[in-house]
Known about the structure:
Blueprint: H1 8-14, H2 24-61, H3 66-90, H4 101-117, H5 119-124, H6 128-139, H7 147-187
Amino acid sequence: MSERPMSIHDIWKESGFDIVVPTSEELIEKDARLRSSVSRSNLLEYVAGLLLFGVSSYFAAQAASGVALAGWVLTMVATVFIMTNLYFRSKGDGPVFGDDTTAHYLASLIRRRDLLGSIWKWYILPLVPGFALLRIAMHGLVSPDQQMFHYGYDVAALILALALALWNHRKAKELNAEIVAIRHLQSL
Length: 188
């Protein structure tokens, strides 16, 4: 009769290391740091969104063609969509006296993880139609000697979008590791 292999949890328990369970005060402090970080990050996003909306408005008023105008307007609509989405997805209830601190902190982490993990859907993808129309509009306006510059711009925009998505995916994985650790502690 074969013996059941030990689980990682059993091996860890036998190793003699103590489980460090964070206190409510530590979780409240971590939650405050998370919310402060999220607020700073969101403020930067709102400033960038206002700047993009302003620039898009200016260029929409100067548009040389209907396709360019449509591209700028779609960029403006996407910016409003992104900023609204960011606001509602980031918005969470603050801690209420008597709440389970661990559950509240866990909910904050899950909300942030889900926000960052799906950034390509609600942040990057909405900008693509406007960008595509602007590229179509620019194609006929750019002289052949300037084409390489514009292709470079396309590549830079693509690299920026991929870097943003990958960075946020990595952050979401870090948050997920903390979520798993807290859930593990709750199950003990």
